[in-house]
Amino acid sequence: MTHDPADLTLADYLDGAREMAAAGRPYLAHLLAEEAARRVDDPATARSIRAQYTDPTTDRG
To answer: Where are the annotated segments for Disordered (predicted)?
Structure first.
């Protein structure tokens, strides 16, 4: 792992999102996935990432 956040890659953010989701930290997973989605050039891929890690604080009811 790198010590400089500027050196993180898309894969680093997605790995972190998966780890946080598995650890029961959905909001952190969402934040990491959101940053990954910002780094993607393809809008469809960005939407897919966001759909996998939705914001758990959003009230959908």
So the answer is: 39-61
